[in-house]
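Long-time lurker. I teach an intro course on protein structure, and each term I like to show students one example going from raw sequence to a predicted 3D structure in token notation. This year I'd like something fresh instead of my usual example. Would anyone be willing to generate the tokens for the chain below so I can use it in lecture? Attribution to the forum is fine with me.
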Amino acid sequence: MNLTERQIIARVRARGRGWVFTPKLFTAVSDDAKAVASVLSRLVKKGSIRRLAHGLYDLPRMHPKLGALMPSVDDVVRAVQESDAITVQPTGAYAANLLGLSTQVPMRVELYTNGPRKVIRYGRQQILLKPTTPRNMAAAGTKAGLVIQALRHLGQRNVTEDILARIAEGLDDRDCKLLLKHRAHAPAWIARILTRLAEKPAL
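-- Reply from a regular --
Happy to contribute to a lecture. Here you go:
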């Protein structure tokens, strides 16, 4: 095992099982991209790490009966964000899931991004990063962004009092301020709901 290989596997193990990473995250070890890719390929063959998709790896968590577990969507997206220095905004059913409005993570997860279009497939999961307008990215990384996108997904007719109450339960004062701040980036009907949620009436 050469120096670069020892350094890379040490860094991977230091982050612990469940860490998802890309070759770009090892520029501190070597600025030779081909050398890093070669080391990662050798480590995959040895079973030291797992290749999830092209340019995407992990040190899988292990289950006593199920064996190697697939990483969460959050873990994969976090690795891509760190590697590509991009911002993402969950949309659709995934935004609803993150707010606790649904229990299942959709098999096809879509996120807006200020970076390039990218499709990531690993296991049975598919993640689509979709370039969008600055308006759609205005609240990215905040609870307000999730609320706006989840409401868009549900549609005006399907937003019930129970759903509003569940959203309100997860909001703190900072979230409420951001809801008011980002009303301008939402359709009129969603803006009215954001105002109501921010004022925390009895829902």
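Some talking points for your students: Residues 94 and 109 are 6 Å apart (CA to CA). Strands lie at 20-21, 50-53, 56-58, 62-63, 67-68, 88-90, 108-113, 118-122, 125-131.
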